[in-house]
Amino acid sequence: MRTLPLTIRRISMLAAAVALATVGTLGSAPAAYAAGPVELRLVPLGDGYEAGLQQQAGYWNLNRLSAAALNGDGAEAVAPAAGWDDTARPWAGGGKVTRTAGKLVMRMRNADGTGTTDDLASCTATVVKSQNKSVVVTAAHCLRINWGLNAPRDLNQVATNVLFIPGFRGENLPRVAPGTDLNSGPAIDSDVAPYGVWAVTRAWWTEGWAAQANHFNNNDMAAMVVDNPADDRPIEEVVGGGQPIGFNPARTTPRTNFGYPTVNFKSYSGPNFSSTGVAVINGSPNVNNVPAAQQRIYDGRSLLFSQGPSWINREWWSDTNSDLMKTQLSPGASGGPWFKDFDPSTGEGVLVGVTSHFAQSSTGGLDAIAEAQSRAPSPYMAGTNFGDQEKAAFETAQSVTPGA
């Protein structure tokens, strides 16, 4: 699940409740699939490409990036007093993953023109090895989501401005005060974006996601082509190569995953909240009865990872192409890489999945359904395991020439 502004995050809990009430419709077999991956074009091709590329990247300044990339409760990160473990810990190992993983920020607009939704959000994405050296992979829901509902808030959204920052240095990103004008602000510099800022020009999500773009679907993956108006080199040359990518891997094998957890209310071991919505660790157990010593606050600035066994997700009592792992990460880590055979000494592994959604809450809704179906105790997260549909999206993305 991507991270959204606080007002939208509260609506997401309502959406879960509504979705539970309509599960007979949303959980049914999706409509007939498209013939293949479906494209989202964000920058026009041809004569308008360079101007469109500048416009796509130029939408983002330091103020707008801060509003999209950091948590909405205003609290800076606090580590668990009891210490980190393999379900979540900051990555301090260096290597390729610190250059290829990055922050994905997006502007989400109403998809069908019936509403006025205009929000900022963030996810995680990864540079992968590709023929055109320009492909970045994330979760499809970071770009397109549709719960079939337009009230009380629009829940049919598509991305219109998307920016990727490999090697994101969130510790150097100033937090903007509420009410700050986001239409102007300093340019994003190398302190925050050491490998530059990369506009997403085209993206393809799986045919399954095109048919049913919500978390009752397990093909939650998108392959994106990126370009930098200030650098003629493809992104792989700038970051020193992409991560290997693999499809149809062996299941129920160990995985290592990364992301920028940002949302605290959707974190199983997250903090309590004051009456004004501020995240606090106040000595009391949280809503999931997690003691204060194990609680933590995420702010979206830092790359964290979790590692351990994976198992096959079951929905409606049948296997899916979704895998599960124990984790203490939270939304904002959506789209983050799931590696097999990850080598901590080099920071490289084979990318075989991306984080799709989290089932970490005791408040019911979709989480209660997922936990019952998967027979998995919280906290855990689901990741799309790369199969034939995901391969088709990647193959399409790597076959194009950026700008052509």
Task: Characterize this entry briefly.
With 404 residues, the protein is of the alpha+beta class.
Number of helices: 9
Order of helices and strands: HHEHHEHEEEEEEHEHEEEEEEEEHEH
The structural class is alpha+beta
Number of strands: 18
The coarse silhouette is globular
Mean pLDDT: 87
User: What is the radius of gyration computed over CA atoms, rounded to a whole number of angstroms?
Assistant: 19 Å
Can you characterise this structure?
The protein is an alpha+beta fold and 404 residues long. Helix content is 18%, strand content 27%. It has helices spanning 6-21, 23-26, 49-58, 62-69, 97-100, 207-211, 235-239, 366-374, 388-399, and strands at residues 38-41, 89-90, 101-110, 118-127, 135-138, 144-146, 156-166, 198-205, 222-227, 255-259, 272-273, 279-280, 304-308, 311-315, 318-326, 337-343, 348-359, 380-385. The strands form three sheets. An eight-stranded antiparallel sheet has the order 2-13-10-16-17-18-15-14, covered by helices on one side. The radius of gyration is 19 Å and the shape is globular. The protein starts with 5 loop residues before the first helix and ends in a 5-residue tail after the last helix.
List the helices and strands and how they pair.
Blueprint: H1 6-21, H2 23-26, E1 38-41, H3 49-58, H4 62-69, E2 89-90, H5 97-100, E3 101-110, E4 118-127, E5 135-138, E6 144-146, E7 156-166, E8 198-205, H6 207-211, E9 222-227, H7 235-239, E10 255-259, E11 272-273, E12 279-280, E13 304-308, E14 311-315, E15 318-326, E16 337-343, E17 348-359, H8 366-374, E18 380-385, H9 388-399
Antiparallel strand pairs: 1-8, 2-13, 3-4, 3-7, 4-5, 5-9, 6-7, 7-8, 8-9, 10-13, 10-16, 11-12, 14-15, 15-18, 16-17, 17-18
